[in-house]
Amino acid sequence: MKICGVIAEYNPFHNGHLYHLKEARKQTGADVIIVVMSGNFLQRGEPAISDKWSRAKVALQNGADIVIELPVDFSVQPADYFAEGAVSILNSLNCDVLCFGSEDGDSQAFEKAADLYVKHESELDKLFKTTHQKNQTYAHNFNEVLSTYFSNFPLDLSLPNNILGFAYAKEIRKHKYPMAIKTVSRLNSQYHDRDLDSQQSIASATAIRAALIKQDSTVQELKRFAPAGTIDSLESRPVVSWNDFFPYLNYQITLLPTEELRNMYMMETGLEYRFKEKISTAFNMEELLEKVKTKQLTWVSLQRICFHILMNNSRESMSVRMGKIDAVRLLGFTSAGQAYINQSKSKFTVQLISNVNKKTATMLAQDIRAGNLYRLAEKSRIDDQDFYTKPINFIDIKDLN
Amino acid sequence: MKICGVIAEYNPFHNGHLYHLKEARKQTGADVIIVVMSGNFLQRGEPAISDKWSRAKVALQNGADIVIELPVDFSVQPADYFAEGAVSILNSLNCDVLCFGSEDGDSQAFEKAADLYVKHESELDKLFKTTHQKNQTYAHNFNEVLSTYFSNFPLDLSLPNNILGFAYAKEIRKHKYPMAIKTVSRLNSQYHDRDLDSQQSIASATAIRAALIKQDSTVQELKRFAPAGTIDSLESRPVVSWNDFFPYLNYQITLLPTEELRNMYMMETGLEYRFKEKISTAFNMEELLEKVKTKQLTWVSLQRICFHILMNNSRESMSVRMGKIDAVRLLGFTSAGQAYINQSKSKFTVQLISNVNKKTATMLAQDIRAGNLYRLAEKSRIDDQDFYTKPINFIDIKDLN
User: Fold this and answer.
1) Contact B254 A380 (CB under 8 A)
2) Segment 304-333 of chain A within 8 Å of chain B by CB
3) What is the complex's ipTM, to 2 decimals?
4) Is some CB atom of chain B closer than 8 A to the CB atom of A372?
5) Interhelix angle for A121-131 vs A107-119, to 10°?
6) pLDDT in tens, A341-393
7) B-chain residues within 8 Å CB-CB of A278?
8) pTM beyond 0.90
C-alpha cells in the first residue's frame, strides 16, 4: 500500500491544487493521500480566508483521503519550523512519499540540495553569522551564504515554493525519515501573481484572495479558477482577513505593557516600542504594518509577530510547546482514508484526535484557542471550531453541501 | 482660607451637580472647592459617557476650582475603597470640610453613624461573618447586621447616596482626618430615576445617560437638565458606553485561559467558568451579563469584574498597588485654584502631576492605560488622554469652547 503525503494551506483550494493532487496520485501511484493542512491561521501570518473545516471539506471532495490539521504553533512559522511540524506528522503517519509543488520540478535537485546543506550545516551556520547584514532579510542573507559557499547550488532558493520544498527535503534528510520526494511543477501561474487572468483556469491563491478581499470580483467570477466546493464554501461564509482581527490586535497592543510585548514570540529587539508608539495613530492592519516596518523585517514576519500578539504567545510559552507533536486534529477522511487509519493506527506515532473533550482539549489547547479567536471575525456566522465539531466523513459530504 | 472637598463622577454634569456646588460654597463658606473626580471609568464599573477632560472642564465652568482625577484603581470599586481613595486625596490636599449630597441631609447623622460603626467594627465584622447569607448581596447582608446590632441606627443605608456618604464619614473618622462633614439634600430626583421628567430641571445622571445611550433624546432635549458646557461637550464627542468595549472584553475572555480569568481582581469562585462558557453565545454586554449573573452578584459588581478583565487587573497586581496614593493627575484649575496650589503645595502630602513624561508616566501607569483603552471606543474621535494633554486652565476655557 502506497501512502503519499501533501502539505498545504488551500487558502482557498483552486485548480492548481486540484492539478497537484491528481498528479500526486498519478506520479506516486498512491492508494491514500494524506494532507497536512494549516488550520485557521497560516504560514504567512494571516488568518485563513475561510475556516479549517470548510477548506478540509473541499480538499476531500477533490482528491485528498485524509486531512490533518497542522498545529497552529507550527503553521504560523517561517519555512523551517513549518516544515519540521508538517513533515514529522506525515512521518508519524507512515507516509512513503512526500509530493509538493515547486518552481523547479526536479525531485533529485531537492534531494541533492538537502544532502549538501545537512552535510555542511555547521560551516554554513558559521558563515551566516559572520557575513549576515543586519539591514537585510533572513532569506536574502541565507541565499548569499549558499551562493558564496557552493559554486553551483542545485536549487534556486529565491522562489517561494522552492524554499518550502527545500525545507521539507532538509527535514527528511536531517531525521533520515524513510520518505521519498516527488515534486510537481506548478502550472501557469506564479505564486505571487496578483491579478486574475481571464484566459487561464489556473490563478495563484494570492490573486484569488486579493480579488475576494477587495471585493472587486464576485465569488461567481472565480468559478473558472476553483472547483465548485470552493465557490460554495466562499458563498456561504464570510471572507476573513486580518482587518477582522485588527480591533483585537489594537486592544492587545494598547493594553500590554512594553515589557510584556517584548516577550512575545519572534518580537525583534526594540520593535515593541514601535508597536506601542504607532498603534495610537493606526486605524487598520496595513497602516499599522506600514508604520512599524523596518528594512530587515518582511511584511510576512510582521504579520506573524502580530499573530503571536493576538494569541498572547510569549517566547517562554512557545519554547515549552515547540517539541515533539504528540497529538493532532483529524479534520476529515474518505472511505479509503478511514480504512487506512483503522488498519494502521496502531503503528502511528502521533495520536489522531477525532473528538475534543476535557482530556483531548488540553492537548489541543492552542488550536482550540486559535479557533475561538478565529470565530471573533464574525461570531454569528462562523461555527464552533472544535468542541462540537467532528471529523468530516466523505460519505456524508453530499448531504453537507 | 477655607477649602471644601467634593467627590464626584459628573457623568454627565447636570443641574443637580450645579446646585450641589453652589450649596457647598454657600454652606461651607469655601474659598476654594476641590473636586476629586473619577476619570474615564467609574464607580459602577462603567466607562464614563465622555472623557475625563471634557467632564473636568464643565466642572470648572460651573463652580469647581480644582479638579483632580481619582486614580482608576480606586474609582472602579465598591463604596469603601472608592471613599478610601477619594477622602485620602482630599486630606492630602488639606481640605477643611467634605461636602456631599445625600438622601438624608443631616450631617450629624453621618458623623454619629460613622462613630458608632468604627467603635464597634470588630463586633460588626464578626456578626457579618456568622450571619451573612450566600445568596444575598453584600449590601443586603451589611444592612441586616446593622439593624440586628443597633436598635436605631441613625442612617438609612438602603439609599445609594447615603451609602457613599457613610463610607466617606467612616474614612474620616477611622483615620481621624481633620475634616468636617457637610451634607446637602438632593433635590427632586432620586438617584436611580430612569425617566426624564419634562416638568423639572433636575434629572438623575442615570436618566440622562439612559436617554443619551438609547438615543431616544437628542442632546438638545437635555438642555433643561444640564448647563451649556455639558450640552456642548456631548455634542462634540461620541457618547461612550460599555457596548463600545464589548468586542475587546469578548476577545479577552476568549483569549485568557480559565486559570488566568480566575485570578482577575474581584472574580468570584467559579464565575470564571461561567464567563468562559457563556461568552461564545453572547453578542453584547447586556446578553453577557444576563447569562453569567447569579443571585448574589449585583449587575454593578459584574460590570466591575468585566472592567478588571478589560484592564487585565489580576488580584496580585491590584494588591501591590492598593496602598497609599503618592501621585494624582491634576485635570484643571481656576485662578483661585491655581493660587491655592501655588501657595500650599509644599504642604500637600500627595504629588499633583501636571505633565505626563517618562518619569511621571510610571506613577500614573494604570490611569494612562485606562485612558488609552477608553480611546478604543472611538479612537478617531477621542483625543489623547495623557501624554499630550495638559491641565485645563480656566482662563483658557472660553477659547476652548
Assistant:
1) no
2) 311-312
3) 0.90
4) yes
5) 80
6) 999 999 999 999 999 998 899 999 999 999 999 999 987 778 888 888 899 98
7) none
8) yes
